[in-house]
Structures are given as C-alpha cells and as structure tokens.
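For this section, I looked closely at the sequence of one protein beside the tokens encoding its backbone, which the following lines show:
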Amino acid sequence: MSIPSDMHIAQQASMKPIHDIAENLGVSPGDLEPYGHYKAKLSPDVLKKNSSSPDGRLILVTAVNPTPAGEGKSTMTVGLGQALNHTGRNAVVALREPSLGPTLGMKGGACGGGYSQVVPMEDINLHFTGDIHAITTAHNALTALIDNHIHRGNELQLDPRRLTWKRVMDMNDRSLRHVVAGLGGPLQGVPHETGFDITVASEIMAILCLADGIQDLKERLKQMLIGYTYTGDPVTCGDLGAEGALTLLLKEAVKPNLVQTLENTPALIHGGPFANIAHGCNSAAATKTALKLGDYVVTEAGFGADLGAEKFLNIKARAADLHPDLVVLVATVRALKMHGGVSKDKLKEENLEALEEGMKNLEKHVESIKAFGLPVLVAVNSFIHDTKEEIALLHELCRQRGIDIETADVWQYGGSGGEALAERAVQMIEEETASFKPLYTLDTSIPDKIQTIARQVYGAADVQFSAEAEKHLKEIEKHGWDQLPVCMAKTQYSLSDDPSRTGRPEGFTIHVRELKVSAGAGFIVALTGKVMTMPGLPARPGAMDMDVNEEGEAQGLF
C-alpha cells in the first residue's frame, strides 16, 4: 500500500469549521476567537466557566531516547487521541507548538505524520497564531529596555559584564551564540558581550507555559533575573518596571489555541519549550482546559522520558497540580535496534540480537516512570520493514519483564490503527490506581535534586560540577533560589550527557557545566555536557527543499 506524503495528506484533509469543533466541546461562540476558518484561540473564561466540572483522565505520551530513525511520538499522541474517539470516548489532544528553527532545519514540523496529524499543518508549522513571535518580541523588548537603562545613566547600577538576559530569535543560527553589542561610540550604547538563544529556550516561553492566568503571568515576569549590580546584588525585571509592558505584549499569546486532527478530534496546541534545553511541555493552561472539556486528554512531553517526561512530572505537574493517570511510552523496533548498535542504513534488515540489546534502553525508561508511581504502557509504533519475528520478540521481552505493551499503526490507518492501544490504555486507567509523586521535595538541595535525577532517571553513577557551576550554586543558595525544582539541559540522544552513548550506558558521570536561574519560570536550569541553547542548522537544512506553488500551497514542508 502506497501512502501519500504527510504534506499531501494534510492538504487533502476534510477539516470542519473551527466553530463546529468548539461547539462539540461545549465552548460557546463568545469564548472563541477565530484566526481564519480552522484555528482559534480560547478565552480564559472557558476554564473559569468549567472550573466545577470534573477533570478528565490524563494520559502522558513519552518515548525512548530518540534516534535519527524517528520514533513518531507526536504521531502516536495524535493517533491515540483519534483512537479513543473511534472507540466512543470523548478525547482531546494537547500538544506543543512547533518552532521554526527545527522546522526549517533538520527535525521538520511537529504535527504528527501519515493519517495521524493535526491540521492545518502548514499554519501550525509556520507562524500559527503568532504566539512564538509575541514571545520573541517580549523577550527582546526587555533586552532593549535593559540596554537603554544602562545607556541613560544606569540608576540600578547594572553591571554590563554580569547581564544574564540575552536576546532570542525563532531560528537556528550558531553565529549569534556569542556577540558584542553597543559598538560604534557613545551614541550606540554601552559595549558588552551578549548572545542569542532560540526563542523556545527563553524563560518567557517557560513562564507562558506554567502561568496560571494573566496576573500570575505578570508576577512571574516581574521575578525574572536580568543581571547583577556592580556589588553583586540581583536585579529583576520588576526592578526595571518592565513587567507591565511585557504582559501587554503577551496578552493574546497566553490564550490556548484550538485546532483539530485529520479525524476532527479537538486539539489544543499552545506553548513550545524545547525538552533538551527547557521543560518540554505544552502550556499548563491548555492541559487544564482540555481536562475540563474532554473525558480523556492525551498530551506529550518532548524527546525521551529522561527529558520531557521527567520535567513534566517534576516541574509542570507540580506547578499546575496535575495528576497523570497513565504514561504511554512510544518505542519502535528500528529505534531499539539502533540503541542495540545497528547503523541507520542497516535498519531494514532483521536483527533480533540488536533488538534485545536495545531493549535495555526501553527497560530503563519504564523503570524511571514507575519510580514516579505511575502505570506505563509501551506503544510500539509499527513500521513497514518491521518483521513479525521482531515484533513478537519485543512483545515477549516486555512480557518477561512484566511490561504492558500494544502495537499500533496510527501512521497508516489513523485512529482505527490504534483501537487496541486505546482499549488497553482505558483498561489500565480503570484497573490500576496511579500514585503519582515527584522524585524529590523542593526543600532538597540543588546538588541532591540533580543527583536524584541523574541516578534514578538517567542511571548515572555520579554528578560532577564545574568550578563555574559551583560558583553559580553559591549564588543560588545565597539568594534563596535553592528551593526551586531543577530543569536539566541535556542531550536527547542518550541517557548520559554524551550523545554517542546510546542504549543503556552504565557507570557514567553527568557533567554540570553551568547553572542558570529562571526565577520567574520557577526552576533552576542545569546545563550539562555540550548542549546548546542556540542550535545550528545541518549541512543541508530542510528549508532548501521548501517552496510555495502558484496556488499558495506549501511544498516540501515535512
């Protein structure tokens, strides 16, 4: 059977007007702000009006460590949502917004694939409703206000050498990681070193995704650290008095976006922090709204369970008072074979030995999720070159270890290809009581929080802090920020901080090179290994194959 491209499938989709999608959810026309025919923003009043309604059941979708072969986590998330509706349940999907950097770079978009996509795919993958642009503008507005304050006399005595607030853009551009601003004489400002992060790594993105309403948004923006004085005292956005203007720039972006899947399942897509350098989850507002509108909510956390799921459970769930009922862990035969040592060009060949070796990666993630007190269901995303023997072996290996498993083909068949997975998920939610609990308490020290994550989630033997990180730790403790949770910035490709160490490495050390304070977001970022907050483009960016035809339809967008 020949399957058309994702782009072709999306362009041929039979979408319902967004008013119909909203009506089916019980959202009144007055609480819907359309952006054209097929996408809209939801008023915050939707959540308020439904505050007394019981929450639906929350399913978190995560995965093994990603490989170049692709695991299809977003595809499975969308497919499971469609499958739940196929089986007579009222389900809502909640996803992150794609960033233009990876969309035009190597990863491509983030709308799922095959017959399990969210649409309109072109809009979602490009500018959507402008949320990321608003965050970029708000972030850089604060930068401009900081530089202007220093130029105009520097009443706060900000030390230009100790500014922690940089600039952002929603693009991969390695040449902007480290720059010097203010050159050209007195009229051009005060010269100082700075740099750019990608927008989805901005603290404002994290704040948008964790804020509980517009007032909480403003208060969190007020608390953001922007630098230190000449005497070493911290200076915040509130000290500068900029939080009001930033909130104004974000007043529309804070509202969740409503779209649909190919099968017209409602989807809330809002916020998009990266999971390797930020906390990797869609907005709490979207998730909480979805829980009031649907009986089942299927959401995802970025990359593997060691990053996205860990942060969802230790950061987002804690901040938003969320209680997941089930974790679905996506795996593929070919990804596990790569974790077992097979090169990408050999994946079409059956290799049972490599599959069994790669099973160790899957097994570690299952152990980590169960440490949070949550039931886990492995969802095998089937591909055309998987053999019956490989699928049978994977099921047998899981059975031997007491791991629940189902195979689904939602890429090829949409919701109908995930019905068995949906039924098993519902069965587990009904039969197994989740006893969710974060892995550490907030009064635990920062080093102990990092040790807990490194040992229990990654399987590390130890954690090593650089001299710079030790210095940052003293600052954090001095100013009382050590009561915050930790957001680990780490490579997605390995349980360790070395991307080349696939599978289930043992005896390794996690190297923390830097600690950054995100006081507004409410966490400390621990940067490990060589992970970058401004990615670069590959040798041949995906953008080189993108175009638009005479009818205005996108081409080459994947």
About this structure: The chain has three domains: 6-128+255-431, 131-249, 446-528. The domain at 446-528 is CATH 3.10.410.10 (Formyltetrahydrofolate synthetase; domain 3). The mean pLDDT is 95. The first helix runs from residue 6 to 11.
